[in-house]
Amino acid sequence: MRMLALICLMLATPVFAQGSGPTPALANRQLPDPAQEAEATKLMHSLRCIQCQGQSIADSDAHMAGTMRAEVRQQIAAGQKPEAIRGWMIARYGEWVSFEPDMKGAGLLLWLTPLLVLIAGIWLARGLFRRGA
Amino acid sequence: MNRPWLLWIPLAVVAFIGGLAIYGLAVPKDEQVHSAMIGQKLPAFSLPAAAAGVEGLASGDMVDGKPRLLNIFASWCLPCKAEAPYLDALKKAGVEIDAIAIRDRPEDVAAFLSEFGNPFRRIGSDSEMAVQLKLGSSGVPETYVIGGDGTILYQHIGDIRAEHVPMLIEKVNAAK
């Protein structure tokens, strides 16, 4: 049995599911202008990787994240504003790609809920204090 | 206690949260990232040939008045091998198919085509996934229905299976 397991382990080959294309130059190389690089990095931390879904493209090693970082740096270097680049990504992948939900529709509810809960809490507490008095 | 109905508020809140939890468990999560490019024109691109003996693919090649499929695949992708017979069936049904190979080498694409057949009119090589990003595509394989005027009409995520073949033929015919 142990022998069989050992043979199975030896037969297993890692899956090369990543392909063999080159990594875009700007995926892992910083922009020469530190101010632009800072702008790009800030944006990269708030864009979601398409492939790994839970991580930002700044944190992910996935190839798709590398392509997205290169796209962000290219557009920043070309003088594009970060919010316009976020819009560019959203136009392709939907709101899903952004870690900062828009202040409209369901996004607005998301932003306002803490405020509404706080108001409801104050209202409930006020009633309690008045009764105690 | 002059307002007894207030007692029910905590229960209502807990019931609401419990309901959300049950809903979240019961409804399967859609893990797919859909392209937001449906209904829009193909982005401009021009890709070199993915292997010797095939033609490269530019966005302009798909704007000739004829609707077709655009298959995003890779030689290293297992489901792409699984869908090969169905792409073949689509071609036999008269559907024109163009393709983009993602992160691939010419020799690997050539080996893939010789093993699984070549149902494609043209195959562009997107080695850095830049065109994939422009298309709002999130992985391989994916298949788009492209209208004769270059409009992206439909996105099929994942491998094409037997049951998807008639649906895709119908979508291409409907675009004529």
UniProtKB/TrEMBL annotation, chain B:
Coiled-coil stretches: none
Transmembrane parts of this sequence: 6-27
Domain of life assignment: Bacteria
Any single GO CC term annotated in Swiss-Prot or TrEMBL for this entry: outer membrane-bounded periplasmic space
Keywords per UniProt: Cytochrome c-type biogenesis, Disulfide bond, Membrane, Redox-active center, Transmembrane, Transmembrane helix
PROSITE patterns: THIOREDOXIN_1 (PS00194), THIOREDOXIN_2 (PS51352)
Family: Belongs to the thioredoxin family. DsbE subfamily.
Compartments it resides in: Cell envelope
Name under which the protein is recorded: Cytochrome c biogenesis protein CcmG/thiol:disulfide interchange protein DsbE
GO molecular function: disulfide oxidoreductase activity
Coarse class of the protein's main subcellular location: other
GO BP field: cytochrome complex assembly
A Pfam family annotated for this UniProt entry: Redoxin
Thioredoxin domain ranges (all copies): 36-176
